[in-house]
Each structure stands twice: as C-alpha cells, then as structure tokens.
Amino acid sequence: MEIKVVGPGCTNCKNLLEVVKRAVKELDLVIEVEHVTDVQKMVEMDIMQTPALAINDKVVLSGFVPDIKTVKNKIKENE
Amino acid sequence: MSIFYPVELLADWLTFDVFHLAGKKLLASAVNFFIYDTIKIFILLAVIIFIVSIIRTFLSPERIRGILSRRNKYVGNFLAAVLGIITPFCSCSAIPLFLGFMEAGIPLGTTFSFLVSSPMINEVALVLLLGSFGWKVALIYIGSGLVIAILSGILIGRLKVENLVEDFVFKNKLNPSRNGLKMHWKDRLNYAKSYTGQIIKKVWYFILIGIGIGAFIHGYIPVDFLAQYAGADKWYGVIVATIIGIPLYSNAAGVIPLVSALAEKGVAIGTTLSFMMAVTALSLPEFLILKRVMKTKLILIFAGIVGAGIIITGYIFNLIL
Hints:
A: alpha+beta; Glutaredoxin; B: 16 helices
C-alpha cells in the first residue's frame, strides 16, 4: 500500500502528515508515508484543495485535517 | 431585544455582582465589553462556521470548477466572486486552486475574481464583522468585496496578461476530476465539526487579544478622540490604513474586534473598511506562494488593482456615510 500526504508545506499539511503517521503506527503497518510538495504532481493528481490524503494514488480526503479515527477508517477501507 | 440579551445579562452580572466594579466606571466598561464580546463572538463563530462548512460539502472546488467552466465572461466573474465566499481560504490552497481552474480552461479573469473574493470574504471575517459592527457594516463589507472581486477580475481579463502566467501552467492537459469524493451526511457533519474546531483553535488567541485591546480602548479612550487623526475629513486616512493592513494577514481574526473599538472612537467607517479589506485580501504570504505559478509583474498588477479598489471603496464610504 502506498500512502501520500499532498500539500505545499503549510501548517495544515504538516498536521495531516503527523496524524497519518500516527494512524499508520497505531494500525501496526510498516509503510513509509510520503509527503508530496511538488505543484506539478498536485495537478496530475487533480487535487484542488490541500492538504490531501491519497491511498494507492486515489484521493480519499482533501481540504482539511481530519481526526485520527477518520484517517484509520480511510486506510482500512482502501487497503 | 437582541438574541444576545442573556449574554448581556451574564456580562452585567459578572461585572457588577461578581467583580464589584460599579465604583470603577472605566474598568467596569472595559471588563463588561470584554466579557460580552468574547462570549458573543465565540457563539457566532461556532454556529456560522459550522453552517458554512456544511454548505461547503455540497460545493467542492471540483464542482465549483465545473460550474465556472461553462459560463460566459461576466456571469463567470459574478459566480466566481459569490462562490469564493463559501470556500475556505488558506494561502496554501491558492496554487492547486489556481492550477485546477486554469487546467479546466476557466478564463484568467474569472479565476482572479475567485482569488480576490475567497480570502477577502470568508466566514471568520463575516462573524467578526457581524459580532463587532452589526449586520449593516457586514453587508456593506460583503457587497463592496464582491464588487471589487468582480471588477478586478474583469479588468485583469481585459488586460490579456496570459503571457505572465508561468508556461507550465498551460501545458497541463485537461484531466477531468477522478476524485469525486462521495459524502454521506455523517461525513458532512464530521467535516463541519473538525473544520469548526480547527478554525477556532487557530484563531481564538488572536480574537482574545483583539477584543482585549479593543476593550481597553472602549473603556479608557474618550469617544471621538481618534476623529482628529482618522476622521472622514483626513484624506490620507484610507491610504495609510490600506498600507498598514497588508502585513497583518495572519492576524485578521484579532484585527476586526480591535478595529471596531477604533471605529467607535472616531475612525471613519470607510477608512475602517479599507483597513479590514487590506488585511484579508492583500496578503504577503499568498503573493509569495503565487510566485510559483505567475510572474512577479502579474502579482503586482493583481495587488495594484485590488489595492486601488479597496482605497476607492474607503473614499466612497467616507463620503456617503
């Protein structure tokens, strides 16, 4: 499974990255969470609101920092 | 009777019965103002941001892009400005939004109408205007904000400055949105809850500081004291206010309650409006971020047009109110 946090590096993106890393750890998964800051990539993924969370290249959340429970659910749903 | 009458009673009770400030008139007035405004503004913040967030879940940027890409110029500018009110604006979203719009073939002018209205008319500013100034000033602010956004967009569209956008922006192929996020009511409520919490967490201390200084001014500075420096008859007031507003972006939440206290002491209303608009619409961090997708000249044109609009608005309202 591939997990990416997408956002140019503002506070919200960093917060999301933290939440996702914690969720991955609590689910006992061994996955490196990737932080995508490249604007070009955002366009390719058609993301218009950051921060966004993509699992296996599918955008599952965009535009806000959710709580850890939501992130865990999204990871489980898209495994 | 205002719906905040119970809050008024509570503020009076705390000021006079709990803190026993009846003997100290100035302090009592400041404390009373602080308690009343704080409670009122936080209630408004929670309620209005929650409602706006729910509405927003029905109008994702992808959907807004769809709406805007099928319109002719002027209707497009109008819709872009109106839809800009609902979208949240974090300067870090400026780039993906801009690129997403350009990629869908939305005209540059329409995109700029959106980029102006989105940060200028946002739900936090709205609540604070409503709470500190009342609905009349809030409506004037929204109305003139929309006019500035629409006209700036039309003007930028007329200037034919597409060549000032970085080349790579137009190289992107239109790639219809794949991420149609499906949302159930549970998700919408969840989103609204997290978003409201997130915003309040981010702005509460600015608001407390703003109301705190505002309360001090309210209690200790005589009414109309500032009229001699910043009344409507001072021609430089609006320009100075606009320039001071530019670097204050991240503190917008604290600035509005503070400014309402200044207005009460004689700063002209047009000058006040210009100041608040400059704080929200002209933001240095946003300009720096936009540099990644457009040439500095275009950012200067954009800032120049919006700045001029804000200054003109200030003079108009100083004249007529």
